[in-house]
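Retro notes, structure queue

What went well: the backlog is down to a handful. What didn't: a couple of records were mislabeled last round, so from now on we paste the full input next to the output in the thread. Example, using Sec20 C-terminal domain-containing protein from Culter alburnus:
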Amino acid sequence: MASSSDVHVRICGQEIVKYDLEIKALIQDIRECCGPQAVLMELNSTVKEKFNQLRLRIQDMEQMAKEQDRETDKQAILSETEGHRKQMFSNQTAWRKANLACKLAIDNLEKDELLQGGDTVRQRKATKESLVQTSSDITESLMSISRMMSQQVQQSEETIGTLATSSRTVQETNEEFKAMTGTIHLGRKLILKYNRRELTDKLLIFLALALFLATVLYILKKRLFPFI
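Corresponding output:
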């Protein structure tokens, strides 16, 4: 059975993967964005928020690694954390490149609009509609991934609850065992004390009987053989 610490590490890793997928999808949206600037700014704002959430979860995993008792577990989690951090840096680089490509595309479109007039406006409208559809498809995919991750998190929480219940049961059993052990020790002491007392009683009875017999013999001796 996995420990509570292992469950928390697994949940943290699942959330990091979820944020990584969401960031990659947003970066792809930025690459395909042809404007206007307000759309690009909104996408960048969302990406920043996701990066902040991702950074916090990576820090949480790093802290969990430092709290491990076994060195092998600590190094394994630290290695996983470093891999997630490198992936985050790679996403940041891709994000910057996507922004440059998007801004260049917006600039080119604006130039084309000035040169071609109305035809460019219609082409841009069609492009925007295509981008909206693509964005909608990506959003649906992200929502599906999010639902799947939520189910996994819920299953992990149920596992933690089961572990907590099992821990309480083991603790209660241990307390009952300790109480039973104390009772057994007390009974043993009483039995030993009773045995010692029984031996003492037997010895006293024997001595009393011997004294009684000696007295009887003495009396008989005096009456039957008074001259001795």
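Agreed that this is the format going forward. Reviewer comment attached to the example: The helical segments are 4-32, 37-66, 71-116, 118-224.
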